[in-house]
Specification:
Oligomer: single chain
Low-confidence stretches: 1-6, 12-24
Largest sheet: 6 strands, antiparallel
Number of strands: 18
Mean pLDDT: 93
Radius of gyration: 29 Å
Structural class: alpha+beta
Strand content: 5-15%
Number of helices: 36
Length: 772
């Protein structure tokens, strides 16, 4: 079957595909037996788990499980006064609904426990919505025992996409699979409803160990054999459990006599335990519906990289990252430390109190001593976590420890704008003071050597040498894979075409041992021509990591418009089928439908792309990327009037969208309505002042309107933010030359030459400046 025929049949089917789910019967069929069966033998482990955060992840509302004050308590936020009360033994909240009017809503489930508890409310279509008002469950003396709003600084009403009734707060997509065991979302795209079920409501034994039926069968057979005096059944790998979380290599941490530091006696070769935890304890997107317990993270999830919105450039947490993205940056991860080295896997508590959890491996007389931490023994500053795991607060009241376990680098704070543990505590001091103190304690300059954050910051700040620094970071196998992949992402986002030296490194990294790096390297190839993509990305269609295969299929999708056939067509069709199935895992989200549309368009199916974009808008009319892409589709088909109408429809919903103003400006330029285009382009620049592309296009439009002098400050400001942007530099050379300002043009040309060494266009410009 050709890819066109395949997409015409498969894509519409998947857009309407109900995800079949079931209750206990389905769970039992899958081999999930429940904590009660596990507890028949594993009483100690179940007792430790009972009342843990995993046990309390989600509960039916009862007097024992509901922590909040429902005794006619009132709370006012964003102009809405909500009331919490009980009626006939049930818990209710009276608050603003999806149309802004007050209504009584029964609490369906409690969600979480400490330091806050949220509440879920059932809505039509099988949805559960997470209330935006939460209960602060900390002790009163710590500021707790109160109601508070999760978005205190947002303008919050029923029109806000973060309002508790909006799709972004739908439990079935946002939260469910990490708060329950073997959750089946059960979304029916045709009816836009959910039939969500789980093997167990909370996070129980089989959420980590996998379905226990084979293990229980083995254990019961062994017990029966022992009782009868017969030979026991052979022990299966992992005793029948699909996930083997124990260390089987005999490795242990011991103090290295030469360095005085802990080292594992056997190098760890698997990450099963860490990645089992990471399925929930990571910032990630799900890419596959049916997960095999114990398989690598990249088979079912796409991990978020060190994006500026989530992390500071040195990898410290900025937004919630759920631990794993931080931990894999750490030296401990590289040395083989796993979650259960510090945390009891059943109670989730630390294995020792305070610094004692660290001195289980690190010598206390060396590290838990003023000669190392330089603070009063037993004081706040002497805590290992105070310096090596500084906290950041999320959800208003929830302090999270940064699991990158980093050495404090106040010397980097002034350079990178990053926080540091020293001034987090000593808030009356600055980073220079802290850097001097640390340098005095630890004078060896090796402790303040180069850091990957310097390369990422160079890219984020538009430094002229950013591409070279990013390339060096991406190719450095001694750096954390998540940082190397993030360098490749920034290289991709900054470039409009690949340079030969970058492409040389990227093609080498297609064979990197880490799938994070391979996936980012494949993504970079979409900047290349189709022949280069085919040469380098085709082997990655068979990569063992699904994240890598999906990227390879995406960059190769345009081949389906080139008339390929035979085995090549079969291979790419199979790869694209996997991509379509992956995108429909979250068919309840506009983003996934947008991705389906992009895939269909790349494969030469614009009608299917239009359908997918429209499905995205049906799910969320406020989803601006779908408006922009649908308009761009119309533009590509010569339907300019419809394109402009689509952009204006989007702006009616979100008049503050820089993307839509920019696209509308371009649409008016193409319609030769330059006077009407300029205000739209200017508004895009005003709304997104850091977007240098918008600034460049606005400046070019000003030049086209005969207003070249007005364009120069726009370009100069943008070039100040992105000194390596050759597009801006070329325009500055040309516009200054056009105005007869040859000295200024030459100065900008020199900057262009530094940013693009060896580029023949630079010499052509230089020669043109010499002409009278």
């Amino acid at each position: 079957m050709s890819i066109a025929m395949h997409l015409r049949t498969l894509l519409p089917t998947l857009l309407l595909l109900p995800f079949l789910a079931g209750g206990p019967a389905v769970a039992e069929e899958a081999g999930y037996l429940g904590v009660k069966v596990c507890g028949e033998c594993h009483t100690k482990e179940v007792d430790l788990w009972r009342n843990s955060f995993h046990d309390r992840a989600m509960k039916e509302p009862t007097a024992e499980t509901v922590l909040g004050d429902f005794k006619d308590a009132e709370f006012t936020a964003h102009g809405v006064t909500s009331r919490f009360f009980t009626r006939d033994g049930r818990f209710f909240v009276r608050t603003d609904g999806p149309d802004g009017t007050l209504k009584d809503y029964p609490i369906r489930y409690t969600f979480g426990w400490y330091p806050l508890q949220q509440y879920l409310i059932a809505f039509p279509g099988g949805r559960l919505q997470s209330l935006g008002i939460a209960w602060d469950s900390r002790p009163k003396e710590q500021g707790g025992q109160r109601w508070f709003h999760l978005y205190p600084n947002e303008k919050m009403d029923f029109k806000n996409p973060l309002h508790w009734t909006a799709p972004d707060q739908t439990w079935n997509y946002q939260c469910a699979d990490c708060h329950s065991t073997d959750l089946k979302k059960g979304y029916d795209a045709e009816r836009n409803v959910y039939d969500t079920h789980a093997a167990e409501l909370n996070v129980a034994c089989e959420a980590c160990h996998g379905p226990g039926v084979r293990h229980v069968d083995w254990a019961r057979a062994a017990a029966a054999a022992k009782a009868s005096g017969s030979a026991p059944p052979p022990a299966a790998p992992g005793l029948g459990l699909p996930v083997d979380l124990k260390d089987r290599d005999g490795g242990a941490f011991q103090i290295d006599a030469a360095t005085g530091k802990p080292a594992r006696t056997v190098q760890r070769t698997t990450h099963t335990q860490t990645e089992t935890c990471a399925r929930c304890h990571s910032r990630r997107g799900r890419i596959w519906d049916t997960l095999t317990p114990g398989e690598p993270l990249h088979q079912g999830f796409r991990l978020a990289l060190l994006e500026p919105a989530l992390y500071f450039p040195d990898g410290q947490i900025k937004d919630e990252d759920y631990v794993h993205g931080s931990f894999i940056q750490s030296r401990m991860y590289r040395q083989g430390v796993v979650c259960s080295d510090c945390h009891d896997p059943h109670s989730l508590k630390l294995k020792a109190a305070g610094n004692a959890v660290c001195s289980r491996c690190h010598q206390a007389n060396r590290y838990d001593d003023p000669s190392h931490h330089h603070h009063t023994q037993g004081g706040t500053g002497a805590a290992c976590v105070a310096c090596h795991m500084p906290k950041r607060r999320y959800m208003v009241v929830d302090p999270r420890l940064d699991h990158s376990l980093r050495v404090p680098r106040p010397d980097l704070s002034a350079e990178l704008g990053t926080p540091n543990a020293c001034t987090d505590c000593h808030q009356d001091k600055d980073a220079a003071w802290a850097a001097a103190a640390v340098a005095g304690w630890f004078p060896d300059p090796a402790r303040r050597g180069p850091h990957f954050g310097q390369a990422l910051h160079a890219a984020d700040s538009g430094a002229a040498d950013a591409p070279a620094r990013l390339l060096a970071l991406a190719g450095d196998a001694n750096q954390p894979a998540i940082a190397r992949a993030s360098a490749l992402e920034r290289l991709h986002d900054r470039a409009d075409r690949p340079s030969p030296e970058v492409l040389l490194t990227v093609t080498r990294l297609l064979g990197d041992p880490d799938p994070l790096v391979r996936a980012a390297a494949v993504r970079y190839l979409d900047l290349t021509d189709l022949r280069t993509r085919t040469e380098h990305a085709w082997p990655l269609l068979a990569d063992p990591a699904r994240t890598v295969r999906l990227e390879a299929a995406r960059v190769l999708a345009p081949l389906m418009t080139q008339g390929i056939g035979g085995k090549l067509l079969e291979q790419l069709t199979a790869a694209l089928e996997e991509s379509v199935v992956s995108a429909t895992v979250n068919a309840d989200r506009p983003e996934s439908n947008l991705n389906l549309g992009l895939l269909a368009l790349a494969a030469g199916e614009p009608q299917l792309a239009e359908r997918a974009y429209r499905q995205a808008l049906a799910l969320d009319p406020r989803f601006i990327p779908a408006h922009a892409n649908l308009a761009d589709l119309y533009r590509g088909q010569g339907r300019e009037t419809e394109a402009a109408a689509q952009l204006e429809a989007g702006l009616a919903i979100d008049p503050e969208s820089a993307d839509l103003h920019y696209a509308l400006g371009l649409s008016r330029v193409r319609a030769k309505r330059l006077d009407a285009a300029l205000p739209a382009l200017l508004r895009a620049v005003e709304l997104a002042p850091t977007n240098t592309r918008y600034a460049y296009v606005y400046a070019v439009a000003l030049d086209g309107a005969g207003r070249t002098p007005e364009a120069l400050p726009i370009l100069e400001s943008a070039a100040g933010r992105d000194a390596a942007n050759t597009e801006l530099l070329v325009a500055l050379v040309q516009f200054n030359a056009k105005l007869g300002q040859r000295d200024a043009a030459t100065a900008w040309l020199d900057k262009l030459a530094a940013a693009a060494p060896g580029d023949p266009a630079v010499e052509q410009l230089r020669q043109s400046l010499k002409q009278p």
